[in-house]
Amino acid sequence: MFTADELTDIKTRKELVALAKAKKIKLKKGLARAAYEEELKLLQTELALLQQHIEKKQLRVAVIFEGRDAAGKGGSIKRFVEHLNPHTSGVVALTKPTDIERGQWYFQRYIEVLPNRGEIKFFDRSWYNRAVVEPVMGFCTPEQYKTFMAQVPNFEHMLHEDGIKVIKFWFDISKDEQQKRFDGRLSNPLKEWKFSPVDKKGQELWDENTKYKERMFTRTHTAYCPWIIVDTVEKETARLESLRYVLSQFDYKGKGSTKANLLTDPNVLFPYFRKPKHFDL
């Protein structure tokens, strides 16, 4: 791929074509990648400014990334935290609960990792495991699921009232695209570790997952804590748009000074809405 420095040194179209030929790069793809890297850099710089604002104003921010496997949650989180101060930011990716945690109130272990004053935390999955994955896979009882669904709006309202800003992303992916990405993982020794039996089961239980997902949206999409849907057909675009959305939620010193485009694309990222069955985007 091209680097930003290489493109800066290019003066003519002929030089660009020669460089592309030397590096065996398809020109259109290479230029798109370079543009993505440049835009990502600008947005990450804006995010660093936002982090300074969060520290100064002693805000508490939790950004939740949910979605089916292979939708790109981890890749996006990586771009969020890449250049942030690790002392006031972090990634939360809890493993399965211990025996002790299974005997606690379900939300308890999540409360313990919520952001403190001046911090921004990124959740690679969250308490919403109990809304979709757990009931579909049989990891919780129907009664536990019912209790969770009754409590979660009130739980999030308490966070809201206490001043914690919660941003909820759902990274959306089609069944065919998910299978394509699974196949890519299995054919790449460096990514094979990402594939698990649960992933395979997710394809088999796609419709069941969809049913619980829609029920989750209907019951937990609120004015104080809405679901933001991110179309992940193009992973790079999803990363940029989710960054833009987080930045759009705050006013901070120096906002826009990088000249980055801070306007989100409504065709890629939008609040949840119930789509009529006859309506096809």
Q: Which labels suit this protein?
A:
PPK2-related, globular, alpha/beta, Rossmann fold, 6-stranded mixed sheet, 281 residues
Concise description?
This protein is an alpha/beta fold. The chain is 49% helix and 12% strand.
In sequence order, what are the helices and strands, one letter per element? HHHEHEHHEHHEHHHEHE
Count of spatially separate domains? 1
Low-confidence segments, ≥5 residues, pLDDT <50?
A: none
Return the CATH topology: Rossmann fold
Give the neighbour order of strands across the main sheet. Answer: 2-3-1-4-5-6
Looking at CATH, the homologous superfamily is P-loop containing nucleotide triphosphate hydrolases
> Would you tell me the structural class of the helices and strands?
alpha/beta
- Radius of gyration over all CA atoms, rounded: 21 Å
Kindly estimate the percentage of residues that lie in beta strands according to DSSP. 5-15%
Separation, N- and C-terminal Cα atoms: 33 Å
How many individual helices? 12
Helical fraction: 40-55%
Envelope shape: globular
Largest beta-sheet characterization: 6 strands, mixed
* CATH architecture label name: 3-Layer(aba) Sandwich
Beta-strand segment tally: 6
Question: What does it look like?
Answer:
The structure is a single chain. The chain is α/β, with parallel strands linked by helices and about 280 residues long. The protein has one domain: 3-Layer(aba) Sandwich (Rossmann fold), CATH 3.40.50.300. The chain contains twelve helices and six strands. It has a six-stranded mixed β-sheet with strand order 2-3-1-4-5-6, with helices on both faces. Helix 3 runs parallel beside helix 12 and helix 4 packs across helix 12. It is globular and about 70 Å long. Homotetramer. It comes from Aquiflexum balticum DSM 16537.
